[in-house]
C-alpha cells in the first residue's frame, strides 16, 4: 500500500524563514495569501522592515540616490516614523561606509540638490472635521511632516509641491489650516493645476483661506523645526528701513473671479475685484451687476 507524504507548506515554516523568503522575493502578494500570513507580516520587527524597504528601493546593478530611496520607501504604509528613523540610521551608515549602492546627499549643494517626494498616501484620507472643531498642530499628518523635516541638512529636503501640489490641495479641501501654513512655509505653491488649491477655497466661500493661499506674510509664526525656521527667517529678512511688501504666491485671474461669482461668494468677489484689481470679462461683469441688484 502506497502512501503519499504531504509536502510541507509555507505555513509549516518557521517565522524567521518566512521573513528570509520575503526579503528574497520582495513580493507584495505574500502577506495577502491568507489571514495567517497577514498576521505574520503585521508582526515583523523594525529591523526586518528596514531591510525590506532597502531591498525594495535599491538596485544591485545601479546606484540609488538617497533622495530616491527615501521617496520610494515613504510610499509604503509600513514606513512608519520608527521605521523611518531606523532607515535614516541605516542610510547614514551605508553612506559613511561608502557603499557602492548609495549615492549620498550633498548638503553643500543646498536647494539645488535632489529632493524627496512627500507621499500622497499621508494626505489621501484628509477630509473636513465632522465635530466642528478646528484642526490643531498635533493633528496628523502635520507631526509626521515635521518629523521628516527635523532630520536636518544631512538628508535631502522634502518637496512640498510633490505630485503637482497634491498635499496643499488636500489640506485646503480638509480646511486643515495648520497643515496649510506648514506646507506654505516649506515652499508649497498654490499655482499647480491652474490654482486648484485656491479654487477649492473659493468653492468653500472661505475668504480667510483664499487670502492665506494668495498673500505672503512674514509675520506668521513658523511651524518649521527650529533649524529650518531660522534659515527661512534669515532668507526672508527685510533690509533696514521700510518694510517691503511681499509678492503674492499666485496671481489672481479672471477664472478665479468668475468662479467666485458662480459660487456667490460676495466677500471673495470684492477681494479679487477691489483689492487685487482683477478686471472681469463681460459675462462675469453682468453676473456681478445682477448680484448687486
From TrEMBL:
- The source organism is Leucocoprinus birnbaumii
Q: Which domain of life is it from?
A: Eukaryota
State what protein this is by name: Uncharacterized protein
Q: Where is the sequence biased in composition, kind Low complexity?
A: 229-238
Which InterPro entries does UniProt cross-reference here? Ankyrin_rpt-contain_sf
* Start and end residues of each stretch annotated as Disordered: 223-246
Amino acid at each position: 500500500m502506497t502512501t503519499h507524504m504531504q509536502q510541507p507548506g509555507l505555513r509549516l515554516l518557521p517565522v524567521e524563514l518566512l521573513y528570509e523568503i520575503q526579503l528574497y522575493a520582495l513580493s507584495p502578494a505574500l502577506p495577502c495569501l491568507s489571514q495567517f500570513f497577514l498576521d505574520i507580516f503585521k508582526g515583523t520587527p523594525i529591523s526586518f522592515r528596514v531591510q525590506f524597504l532597502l531591498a525594495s528601493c535599491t538596485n544591485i546593478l545601479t546606484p540609488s540616490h538617497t533622495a530616491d530611496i527615501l521617496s520610494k520607501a515613504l510610499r509604503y504604509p509600513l514606513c512608519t516614523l520608527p521605521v523611518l528613523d531606523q532607515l535614516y540610521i541605516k542610510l547614514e551608515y551605508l553612506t559613511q561606509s561608502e557603499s557602492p549602492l548609495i549615492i549620498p546627499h550633498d548638503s553643500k549643494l543646498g536647494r539645488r540638490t535632489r529632493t524627496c517626494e512627500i507621499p500622497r498616501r499621508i494626505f489621501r484620507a484628509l477630509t473636513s472635521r465632522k465635530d466642528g472643531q478646528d484642526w490643531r498642530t498635533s493633528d496628523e499628518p502635520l507631526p509626521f511632516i515635521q518629523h521628516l523635516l527635523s532630520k536636518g541638512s544631512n538628508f535631502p529636503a522634502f518637496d512640498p509641491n510633490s505630485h503637482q501640489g497634491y498635499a496643499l490641495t488636500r489640506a485646503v479641501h480638509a480646511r486643515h489650516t495648520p497643515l496649510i501654513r506648514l506646507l506654505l512655509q516649506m515652499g508649497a505653491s498654490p499655482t499647480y493645476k491652474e490654482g486648484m488649491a485656491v479654487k477649492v477655497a473659493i468653492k468653500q466661500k472661505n475668504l480667510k483661506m483664499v487670502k492665506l493661499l494668495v498673500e505672503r506674510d512674514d509675520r506668521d509664526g513658523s511651524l518649521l523645526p527650529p533649524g529650518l525656521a531660522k534659515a527661512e527667517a534669515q532668507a526672508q529678512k527685510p533690509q533696514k528701513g521700510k518694510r517691503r511688501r511681499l509678492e503674492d504666491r499666485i496671481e489672481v485671474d479672471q477664472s478665479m473671479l468668475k468662479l467666485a461669482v458662480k459660487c456667490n461668494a460676495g466677500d471673495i468677489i470684492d477681494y479679487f475685484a477691489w483689492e487685487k484689481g482683477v478686471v472681469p470679462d463681460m459675462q462675469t461683469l453682468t453676473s456681478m451687476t445682477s448680484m448687486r441688484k
